[in-house]
Amino acid sequence: MVLVLALGVAALAGGLVASLGFDEAVALVTGSEVEAPKTAANDGHGDEDGDSHTPAPEHPSSKVMVTPFKEIIVNISATTATGRQTTRFLKLNTALVYDSSKAGADHIEERKLYLRDSFQDYLRQLSERDVQGSAGLAILKAELLRRARTISDSQAPQEILISDLIVQ
After folding, report:
1. Are 159 and 94 in contact (CB under 8 A)?
2. pTM recorded for the entire structure
3. Which pLDDT does position 75 carry in this prediction?
4. Where does the record place it (predicted)?
């Protein structure tokens, strides 16, 4: 039991690092701020008085947007105690957190229906065992985030928030 819990925590931490990046994940856990990395635009080769063509880095929370999705209900497969295949309902309420300052972020709202459709396609392939435990939840969130990044064709999606996940 302790091993399963440790693996779940490790998977959750890995998913957090994979979706946010190491520095941002550590900053989230410790409550500190992340220093913006130096790029060619702000590494000292631009104008010193701030008149360069790239915008100055903003506070991280000022560019984070959250867009909720309508409730998703799909059938998933399950196995009873006697080994018989059956179906269950999976109800999911979720939201997408994205960085509005990143390229492609302006397309997320217009592609929201495609995102929801992609989420449903994935969810219909799951079994009841796939969504059990913290490891199942971490994998589910990582897969939904991967699909959000693919459909939006950008790295703007940062995280999937799940408010309700019910298997009945």
Report:
1. no
2. 0.61
3. 93
4. Cell inner membrane; Cell membrane
In 3D, which of 123, 113, 167 has the Cα closest to residue 144? Answer: 123
The two structure tokens encoding residue 107: 């397309």
Q: What is the domain count for the chain?
A: 1
Helices (H), 75-155: 112-123, 133-152
The CA distance from 157 to 28, in Å, is 16
φ, ψ at 103 (rounded to 5°): -60, 135
Q: Cα separation of 12 and 24, whole Å? A: 15
**Does residue 117 surpass a pLDDT of 90?**
yes
Query: Which residues are CB-contacts of 58 (< 8 A; sequence separation ≥ 6)?
Result: 101
**Structural domain boundaries enclosing 120:** 2-167
- Beta-strand relationship, 72-79 and 64-68: unpaired
